[in-house]
Amino acid sequence: MAGVAVTAGLPTGYGIAGATSVATALIWVLPGAALLIAAGAAADFLRWRITRYRIGDDRVEVRSGVLVRKRRSLQRNRIRTVDVTADPLLRVFGLVTVRIGTGDQSSSGEGAVALRPVRRDVADGLRRALLRHAATAEAGSEGLLAKLDRAWIRYAPLSFMAPLLGGSAFGLVLNVSDWFGPQNSVIGYVTGLFRDVPLVTAIAILTVVALVIGVVAALGLWVEMWWSYRLEREPGGTLRVRRGLSTTRSISIEESRLRGVDVVEPLGARLAGAARVDAVATGMVAKAEDDKTDHRTLLPAAPKAVADRVAAAVLREPVAPIASVQLTAHPAAARGRRLRWALATVVVFEAPLVVLGVLLTDVLLHIAWISAVVLAPVAVVLALDAYRSLGHGITGGYLVTRSGTVRRSTVALQRRGIIGWSVRQSRFQRHAGLVTVWATTAAGAGAYAIHDAGTSTGLAVAETAVPELLSPFLERVPATDQTTSLV
């Protein structure tokens, strides 16, 4: 609460002091800060005194609330996650926050309860007890699957977070200067620095500065999120990810809930030969309320060979399905669709500039043709790369599908985890002989697509992956007995 009071009091006090005096500002701010700290601490003390929880044989019950009493009850057999988090303040006192969730992502927090704070040893006991189930681990298969290699930090600046963080830094400077008053002075100072510099050069210099700031920020964020990273398999069949520098996190995934893995290759990481591994599991909430990272991530961006090895270890396979299968290429019509979409995107971007340039100023027309000359080849390259990334295949008990260019995703989905199929075909796809087939599952994103496959090929893959599930809706051409279509 003292931190909240200081954060709120500094800009307020500065503004008052600018209008009157420092003494007057202190007279106004200090009593308010003291009241805020006292009221906040008292409310949290009452919450702590009133909150009670009980771990029964069948249910987890939590009673809380100061003015409005609330009782929460979760069935133990529906519990999917028990995550342990400790921010710097809790770590000072040897405490942690325990979040117990059922994986219900649509209930505004009603599918989870949080115990804050509890002792670390109590939290470890709760995590083990609530995730206990019939042993599924193979003999000698427990232990460390992956740990942090500090060389992986080189992939952090290659993410899209770097330019976003750099741009956000400029916005932060303007906001802070606005709080304390001298925003016009800051803008005037920057304008004065570039008074005699051509506009294009000034923009280039500011862009480089923003990128440098973004790279430094991305490195710091990566260290905060992934320091002390370890991926382990515990007795009883639980995968546990531990990571974090100032705020430590422990995320547990039951292997019985695992339905596959998703090897994600963002464009920058892919160009550097890196990939990350996400879990495709039932009951996994993608992000916690106070965490900006994906809780499904089992391995941060690492060399592709390491990602394949970790994916194989997680699935208990000698070789990762995504590495062992030869993916089937998609028809050339799929390439044409991507080229048309890419060029259409450029046209949509340029059209407003052209219209405004005709109506207002020729400067916008020059910006339009220059940006078109740059964007059109980039769009074509990305479209061709997106086509090359398309592929699908079946190996053993897994359906493998790959798509994407800016974010290429290769999913190995257990065939036994597929509970339905959704076949979609637009008018343009039907004319081109293409179809998109979605494998529906209760895990991960809920459905994974085979984009723009040949109609017969896509339906045949769905029929082969889960026999008899799609067969009643198919008919074959008697002449070849190979071509299939939906009834």
The overall average pLDDT, rounded, is: 86
What's the total count of β strands? Answer: 21
Sheet with most strands: strand arrangement: 6-5-4-10-9-8-7
As a whole number of angstroms, the C-alpha radius of gyration is 28 Å
Largest sheet: 7 strands, antiparallel
Number of helices: 14
Query: Uncertain segments of ≥5 residues (pLDDT<50)?
Result: none
**What fraction of the residues are assigned to beta strands by DSSP?**
25-35%
3D shape: globular
Transmembrane segments: 25-46, 155-177, 197-223, 341-360, 366-384
Keywords: Membrane, Transmembrane, Transmembrane helix
Organism: Pseudonocardia aurantiaca
Protein name: PH domain-containing protein
Summarize the structure in words.
About 45% of the residues lie in helices and about 25% in strands. The strands form 5 sheets. It has a 7-stranded antiparallel sheet, with helices on both faces. With about 475 residues, the protein is of the alpha+beta class. The protein has 14 helices and 21 strands. Among the domains are: about 1-50, no CATH class; about 155-225, no CATH class; about 325-330 and about 390-485; about 330-390. The termini are far apart. InterPro entries: UCP026631 (IPR014529), YdbS-like_PH (IPR005182).
